[in-house]
Amino acid sequence: QVQLVESGGGLVQPGGSLRLSCTVSGFTMDYHAMGWFRQAPGKEREGVSCIDGTIGSTNYSDSVKGRFTISRDVAWRTVYLQMDSLKLGDTAVYYCHNGANWGRGTQVTVSS
Known about the structure:
Layout: E1 3-7, E2 10-12, E3 18-25, E4 34-39, E5 46-51, E6 58-60, E7 68-73, E8 78-83, E9 92-97, E10 106-110
Parallel strand pairs: 2-10
Antiparallel strand pairs: 1-3, 3-8, 4-5, 4-9, 5-6, 7-8, 9-10
């Protein structure tokens, strides 16, 4: 059974940092692209970042480029999203995605 479990969300002030983790089971992460998405209240889910399953190349949405960093640890079956210089507009539920399955999400709230 494929499972993706996100963690690391929380409440942070503007300018702060958080690191999200997505631990996977039930499939081999080595050759799967992995992505982070987010959904703010009243808005559609949007892509934030993804990492290629073979060479590890990365992509970011314009709204987070330069502030967020995606990485993976295949041995630990985990994908990370380091989020720095957080803004109010980053408030959302963040989801992990492997192209077919979704995690349940982790809430990130940026507030002063």
